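Q: Could you fold this chain for me?
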Amino acid sequence: MGLYVDIKKKLPGFSLNVCFEAEIDTMGLLGASGSGKSMTLRCIAGIETPDSGKIILNGRVLYDSAKGINLPCRKRKIGFLFQNYALFPNMTVEENIRFGLGDLKLGEQLRKVDEMISMVHLEGLEKRYPSQLSGGQQQRVALARALAIDPEALLLDEPFSALDEHLRNNLLKQLSETLSNYRGVTLFVTHNMEEAYRISKELVVLSSGKLEAKGEKEVIFTRPPTIETAQLTGCRNFSSIKHLSPFEIEALDWGIKLKVNHECRGDSQYVGIRSHHIDLAEDNDTENVFKCWAGFTSETPFRQTVYLSVEKKLLNSGAYHLQWEISKEKWDKIKDMPQPWHLKLSPEKLILIR
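A: Sure. Below is the predicted structure, expressed as structure tokens.
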């Protein structure tokens, strides 16, 4: 049981070509803008038609180009939460939620609406119109409408993209609670790695219409297989490499030799390290310790990003080898220390990428 997708569709600028399976759980579709995430959802829902391929949900064939099968949206049993929510402005909250329940008797419709309103905490707002609701309330109405039809699959298309940070965090928590009680396939589209990690159990990474990676979120984040996947999961430091031995490489762009924990495969072309995995070396550290000079810095309210040159000080003030992200407290302690500093790139934190 679950969702099987294997479709192709030619689009302006690139071709969508994806194949994956999703079980009864939440899978994130992570990718940059224009990577094909939303188009994949629209094809699954029946809003768009692929050029070729097959879509199967819990054993039901929704689309099969070879057999001429293409079920209309209303027969697919799929709930869709649009990026802009797509609420009907001339309908109240309860009327929007009832919209897809026309096949039920009136009493069953009203019972279902009450159930959905309670589930998404919209009590007292039943008679309001979308224009009288906040962004978060509108999103919950759209989610209730999508779930009211008891869908076998729920498709969420960047539902938090228009919300501020505080509201996004609150609704992420509420959505996680709602999905924990949903017994169907959920596909959650986002370009935000933190949203993807918090909501999803598994991830599919798309780039220019093609599947870059698929797997458990912990594996995708700790061992991204491609440089595009590493970038989408927040890695900022990369270098092309030369293989020196099974457990040693030369980072050509950084000008240093590195010991690695895992044997280098022949198809590994890059090494990466996340900016928060770089650390000050201890006195007894000897492996992968290098002299570093701080160039320019940038800051957020709680973190400092330091742009480093490694083993030799770069004369160009805008040039750097590595980004190092640390807390403001640590930065305040080290910023006046004499340079070069000795920093460590721990072998277990290095990512080998094809």
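A (continued): The chain is about 25% helix and 35% strand.
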